[in-house]
Amino acid sequence: MGNKKVIKVRYRLSVIFFGTVLIFGLMFYKYLKSTTLEDVLSEERTITVFSENTVKKGSASDSPDGESDDLTDGAEPTSSAEVINPVPESEAVGEDYLDGCVFIGDNITYGLASYGIVPSGNVLASASLSVTKIDTAEIDTASGKKTVIEAVSELLPEKVYVMLGSNGAAYSTPSELYISYSSFLNKLRIASPDSKIFIISTPPVTKSKEDSKESPIKNSDIDDLNSQLLDYCNKNSLYYLDLNSALKGDDGCLSADSAENDGLHFKKTTYETFVNYILTHTVG
Question: What is the pTM for the complete model shown?
């Protein structure tokens, strides 16, 4: 008797299970018969499209250090406007344009102030400043000695021009320089988020500097660094000025007539070319 009761219970459960499956199957078939392709296409759907320049916080990039080129700590891109790089030639603006700019760099940039081309208060540079030291080195400002980031945080300029890479190029690889450079740029963008930031390509050196026995610098290494900087600018909506190409001769080097005897630093006439390039490559 016990076995018969078990069999009856199992039989009833099987009937209930198959009956349930059959009911759901009939309901699903009825739904398919009553739903058309037009009904499906008319449903409201939201599609999110990410552009190449969208900042993905914490995402990985193909930068040499394996870290992201994008900002961290919740900061936003410097500009959401379309950026064309290198910045194309534009109608020349007056020299008063320079009054609203801050220039960051090493001893080449410092020459803008020492030659009286740009007011000294607009130049955050020193003879010893380099990419690898820029986070910690202090420079003289109107309000005392400060790091570049501290000074920019106080000034909050409309436009910032950065030209680094010459100091240290003889001792560091392009990838090593880029790691320090991109790290500094990330901090700069956080310190002055509303500034238009222009990265000026690292300028070339003369043929004699390339062949020098003491601290030679290869223009091919400078080109490598500039290529990485251009990529950074494209990813992060910064402006890139190709001064390097404007200063190169047919041999791919800086003309000896444009440089001091060391083959690296600019003569005053080269600064005129430098400033003219800036004034004819602006953005609205």
Answer: 0.75
